[in-house]
Amino acid sequence: MIIIGAGAIGTSVAYHLALAGVKVMVFDRGHVGGQSTGASAGMIQINPDRSTPPALSTLALESARLFPALAAELRERTGMDIGYRPGRLLHIALHEGEESRLRAHRAWQVDHGVSVAWLDGPAVLDLEPSLSPDIRAALYYPDDHQLLPLTFAQALARAAVDLGAVLREGVNIDRLLTDGDRVVGVAAGGESTYAAEIVIANGAWASSWSETLHAPIPVRPVRGQMVALKTTGTGLRNVVSSGEGYMLTKPDGRTYVGTTVEEAGYDARPTAAGVGGLLAMVPRLAPGLADATFSSAWAGLRPATSDGLPLLGPLPGWHGVTVAAGHFREGILLAPITGEVVADLLARHRPRLPLDPFDPGRFLIRAA
Question: What is the pTM of this model?
């Protein structure tokens, strides 16, 4: 089987297929985790709201449950620590209107089984002294986690290779090879590689195969800019978020500040406006970090769909091609379960979670 794309999704699919004894080859035009995976903050959060489709919440909960065992498994197989650690979240309110919205949000989440506590301003500052004394309250999520996203993808790739998979970085797939209504392989330059199944897992670029296959793969890029700061003290103890953005300190001591949500096509540049807005947020939310040193800025292109659900399953009208793309901001969180269910689909096993809401054919039905 051939997988196009070596981000967290593609490498997770490769790992789960290799675990099942399947011969796998992974192609990426760059390097493992080099696009949206490596650009992300690596937060593992379960924070649904009224707009979250129930099927997506179920998928996210199950994927989050898989992480502890997967992190230990990857460490045992590869010796790599993916940085899976508690990343407890404080979602703060600075104004009365925000406080009211948080109260309503918490009430809904408690009714839906989310573990979330209400903290008043002094209690918030006890947990996170760097924050603004103007904070009125916060929601506290004690069960959230974080990891190192690039290391995560690299560990999945290394484990897959150790199990027999072939990884080909720096190889751009020019076209898909077809025979009637079946996709039978890929071509890169003058080289053709054939396989029984092809998995399209190249994130925001998945839609590039729509024309060849005469079928909609409606995934579009949404730019997210980030900055990193070097803090003079210990950084943040928790992940801190608000309506403006979020901040978290990684194990290497850098504090990440994110993120923008921009319809900018395939322009993955960090911009003065985007970086400036993120930097301006820091002293408002966390005056204790106002003297932190700017370290770097970057941007990633998240793969988004119009209904907020990923595409998981065979592409209608074709044999031999499956889509695993469109995870938007949840690619890291959903990587474990995506790898498992896509591997099950390709092995002709019934996935343990219903995948009908994620069927790529739903867009064909709407068009009709």
Answer: 0.95
